[in-house]
Amino acid sequence: MKNDNDEGEAAVGRRSFLRGVGVGALGVGALAISPLASPAEADSETYDEKRKSRYRVTDDVKAYYRVNRYPS
Fold this sequence. Notes:
Number of domains: 1
Radius of gyration: 30 Å
Strand content: under 5%
Shape: elongated
Order of helices and strands: HHH
Number of strands: 0
Distance between the termini: 87 Å
Largest sheet: none
Number of helices: 3
Structural class: mainly alpha
Helix content: 55-70%
């Protein structure tokens, strides 16, 4: 015949283990989020730098136009 105390001890052990794993996961999650909670910094670009054109016709762009049959 089974002893109910043996099963109860095993169940409590598993429960406490799972609680510990859950608490550990929360702690790791809090550490992972903390760098994202840093204060915002201002942009280092001036207004003119933000407004300038950044498009450049490189060899990759030319190859894309050629492969996709865009008029050059």
